[in-house]
Amino acid sequence: MPGDLRLSEFEADLSQLWAECFQRRPRGFKGTTALSRLVNHVCKSRSVDFVLYDAGPNVGALNRVLLLDCDYFIVPAACDLFSVRAITTLGRTLASWVNDWSTVQALAPDGTYLLPGLPDLLGYVPQRFRIYRGEVTQGQTGYISQIEKHLRIDVVKPLHAASAKLANRPFTRLQLGMIKDFGSLVQPSQAQGVAIANSTAGTAVQREEARAAFARIARRIAALQKGKSK
């Protein structure tokens, strides 16, 4: 389902709708859960098993309702200082949203459609890094280890503190895979509206490399999901 720039107009309303949930106003509950209800309707009508929300890197009102509707979330992280610092904000904000929504759930009248409100960390994906002689460049390798460290400290711990149901599995490996900088392949694939591996850009070898990288992540996600609910 394609996004639309006009979602920014809806996002402007979401802050007020969020406040109305605490006031037990039906409009607040309906507006806050609108995207969730739409997506669930499409899932039922088309027998969809998994939904992936592709959200921007911010902690705004739109991402709040998307994340609170998710069973799990994945952090795509560029190998730079900005990503490392942003992780602290992410963990603190998520924990606050989980706590606030728990309050909303207690206030909601019986029969009200509500978001699950328990987004759990599935892992992270380092992206847009450079490869030199078959290895990640030295300057970016250090950021990958910092991202792993800060996710454990600044996201896993706050989430578990917000709810015992969150971050309660052994986090032996948070990294789900790695997506290097595919450079000139990205823009043509966006223009064509297809995955990098299915575009006409680059060489067959480059496209196959992209396909393999994303396939490894998909298998990792499937393995973590095995035996769990959707």
SSE blueprint:
Blueprint: H1 7-22, H2 26-32, H3 34-46, H4 61-68, E1 72-78, H5 81-107, E2 120-129, E3 131-132, E4 135-136, H6 138-162, E5 179-180, H7 186-192, H8 204-225
Parallel strand pairs: 1-2, 2-5
Antiparallel strand pairs: 3-4
Helix pairs in contact: 1-2, 5-6
Walkthrough of the structure:
The protein has 230 residues and is mainly alpha-helical. The protein has 2 domains: 7-176, P-loop containing nucleotide triphosphate hydrolases (Rossmann fold, 3-Layer(aba) Sandwich), CATH 3.40.50.300; 182-230. Helix content is 54%, strand content 10%. It contains 8 helices and 5 strands. The protein has helices spanning 7-22, 26-32, 34-46, 61-68, 81-107, 138-162, 186-192, 204-225; strands spanning 72-78, 120-129, 131-132, 135-136, 179-180. A 3-stranded parallel beta sheet has the order 1-2-5. A two-stranded antiparallel sheet has the order 3-4. α1 (7-22) packs across α2. The longest helix has 27 residues, at 81-107. The protein is globular and about 55 Å long. The model has no long low-confidence stretch (mean pLDDT 87).
